[in-house]
Design goal:
five-stranded mixed sheet; three-stranded antiparallel sheet; 5 helices; 27% helix; globular
Length: 154
């Protein structure tokens, strides 16, 4: 179990855990998850930690897209946004890069989920460890993280 799975379990939401053997040479963790699980990559989302204004924000975007930092800054009311330092992201979330989940982070951060997630009954996000994905309804993910939906993918 990971903190992300524990959080979903405690909330008593519907979810499914999917595991695969992670290849350390994989260029994209999210693309690898989609390929190994045989899932449409548009339904697999990556979790990014971003420095925006005076704080940190979590962005959840499809693995085939980039995060639009300017749009995210507008959404959260910051003048600018930049990817957070890896060490900072790992320390604040309690997860290692490639396994950062939007659920069960050490410190709950403001979260924005790309609006495209709402077009699917379920999406896949990291369950807190490389090689483990949690499939859940976008609305449940938003409820558990306090997230807002917005167009933040480029």
């Amino acid at each position: 179990m990971t903190p992300a799975i524990d959080r979903a379990k405690k909330a008593k939401i519907a979810y499914t855990i999917h595991e695969y053997t992670h290849d350390p040479a994989a260029e994209s963790y999210g693309r690898e998850a989609a390929d190994k699980l045989g899932v449409d990559p548009a339904r697999v989302f990556k979790t990014l930690v971003v420095a925006a204004g005076d704080g940190l924000v979590v962005a959840v975007v499809p693995v085939l897209h980039q995060l639009d930092l300017k749009q995210l800054a507008r959404v959260v009311g910051a003048k600018k946004a930049a990817m957070a330092d890896v060490a900072v992201a790992e320390r604040v979330t309690g997860y290692v890069v490639g396994g950062v989940s939007p659920l069960g982070q050490k410190k709950r951060l403001p979260t924005v989920i790309d609006a495209s997630a709402q077009g699917y009954p379920t999406i896949y996000v990291s369950a807190g460890r490389r090689g483990v994905e949690i499939e859940l309804a976008p609305a449940d993910l938003a409820a558990l993280t306090g997230a807002a939906f917005a167009d933040v993918a480029a």
